Amino acid sequence: MARRSAESLPWSLFGAGGFVVAFLFPVHIFLFGLAIPLGSVSAPSHAALLALLRNPLTRLYLFGFCALGLLHAAHRLRFTLSDMLRLKHLDTLLGVLAYGAAVAGVVVTIALLMSVT
Amino acid sequence: MPSAIPRPKYYQRRMPLTWWLERWNYTWFILRELSSAFVAYWVIITLMQIAALVGGPQSYAGFQAWMATPVMMVVNLIAFIFILFHTLSWFRLVPQAILPRIGGKRTSVVVTAAPMYVIWAVASVVVACFVLGVF
Questions:
Q1: Which of A23, A37, A46 sits opposite B73 (nearest CB)?
Q2: ipTM score for this prediction
Q3: 3-state SS, residue A87
Q4: Which residues, in sequence order, are CB contacts of B21 under 8 Å at separation 6+?
Q5: Chain A neighbours among B 25-54 (CB < 8 Å)?
Q6: pTM of the entire predicted model
Q7: Which residue ranges in chain A fall short of pLDDT 70?
Q8: Strands in chain A per DSSP E
Q9: Contact residues for B128 (Cβ-Cβ < 8 A; gap 6+)
Q10: Phi, psi (rounded to 5 degrees) for A45
């Protein structure tokens, strides 16, 4: 049986986040960042989007979307900064900063999604 | 006092901070990794959008007006390109890393990447239908 290393949790979250980003982020950015602001598609009303947000399944979806996206980004940015700027000696510090920021973001996400009434 | 056993000094090549600009392969690698900055950016935008929705119709109108400013449109276009880059490279590399061979045969990129494109298309259509109120 393969021994699980201490790094296996960050790695599996990184992998899951990579799939979430690959499958779901393009359509979100395309719609909310480009098509709707440009007026290419008719903008959904505030009432319609709020109704969608009130559905617990939507909030569960958004939790996964934001939390896994943040953890994926944190994991990748940590190693990118360490490689790109040759900061191997600061690897632990970068890890603490990156995962710390991601966990803070997850807490904000949970608080925000719970504030929907 | 006798000195300790001398330890060999390993040769370490000094690399300039711009090492990743020396070859296209390196540059692509760094650009792909930097796409994660835009992932974080978009999560922040999504959280701001949720906050604006909770804040009421006026605050959401403000969010929409802000997203339609030229600066945000340009940033979002750049973010979209980087995220597409992430998607295409993820489909190409990751399923092959998970399934290097099926039934003793090396899997081709086509076999592992094709289902990814199908799932991506279906997921995008479903999300768009929910957002645009088709469902």
A1: A37
A2: 0.90
A3: coil
A4: B27
A5: 30, 33-34, 36-37, 39-40, 42-47, 49-51, 53-54
A6: 0.86
A7: 1-7
A8: none
A9: A27, A31, B134
A10: -70, 165
